[in-house]
Amino acid sequence: MPSTLATTALLLITTIFITMIRRTTSLALSAKTNDRIKVAILGSGMSGCSAAATLLDSPNNNFDISVYEGGRGIGGRMSTRRVTDESGNQLYQFDHGCQYISTPKTECFRKELEKWKERGWMKPWKGTFATVSAASTSSSDIELSIEEPSLDGKEKYVGYPAMNTVCENLLLQTKSEQTINVVTGKQARAVAVHSEEKTGQSPWQLYHKDELLGSYDWLVVTDRNSAQELRPDLADANINMEFKQVNEHVESVKSCTTMIAFDEPLPLPFDGLTFDYNSNKAVMREEFKSLGWAARDSSKPGRSGNNEILECWVLQSNPEEALRLLELDELQGATLPQIREKIREQMVNDFIDCIPTLMAKSGCDDSKQVSTLKIVDSMGHRWGAAFPSFIKQELFKEMECQVFPEQQFVACGDYFGTYAARVEGAFLSGRAAANEVLKCVGR
Questions:
Q1: Is the pLDDT of residue 221 over 70?
Q2: Which residues pair with 216 in a beta bridge?
Q3: What is the pTM of this model?
């Protein structure tokens, strides 16, 4: 253990020292007197959107900014799943990633949150929240506690009318007739352009399969998994090994999510429920199996959409149970649709099975109503890297992003900084990445 800590500390000191040297020697590396500076950002989650918005809002803005998102929509883990009819009209929606934003920890993010609220991008989720736990080793001692409305100013905020609204609006901003180019549904692959004379030559080219998406002066990567050997994002990027080495010190936690639309409201007196496995892991696993969080998504402001009859719920797994589920023998070698179907089946059954217990513990015991529940639609989803683990995150607490000026490359994301694994941490990291670009180009 001492040698491991010493190695980690040495790597951190070396990384910070090298970064400081680079900052002082490379300020004018990509500065251009006449040409606009082209920046490509991989990922449209909060860190990518924050970086793009910060560059757009910079004084004397001279950036052409493109954001590439491999998924169907903007938001990353702040995504919203929308279900439409044949004509494209929205029927209902689910926040299947981030569930809410907690009270800000920093003054910077507090001001940003206030700005989003003033613009109507975000509203407080004034729901009823509860926790279910096991008081002893007996399943008969399951307890359900309803939280009192917060009196200390702590609130849960959600995007309005969908969680990814904030990300969408950050990317749709216009300043001095300048906009951000957003491309979705294309997995961008970065290629380092080798040239003996860098002057006048953009060091990055982005491709989707064989299609050239564009040439760029700076590359900002927001997903740490891009450093993995099997990912195509940076396979041809010739990225500094330091980036890959540092990323080896982060572990990602998997998560399973299931979205359910019921034909009528469930007889449960809460809108968000936390399953407390720390109370008694064995009893909680026996009673609630895969469930870690359940939310009445329809209770969030603006979520009724075009259908005020259906009630939508989002279920998220306990991290340990997600790993157990995904490691089932039957899922080894399975396709992604097969994995999603298994997640859907397991979590729907676990939730339906526990509703009578939750009703009884909340003083409602109408078993007949449970037996007549009708599921209109349900979908499973796997988050391969839902959030960073804190096990090896110490290395990143002193870093808000990682910049390599010589390669005109910056990495950011919610695995950096003191507030890792939070929306706030992702926002601060993206903003820091943009500021590093601004420093290097002398703006």
A1: yes
A2: 204
A3: 0.89
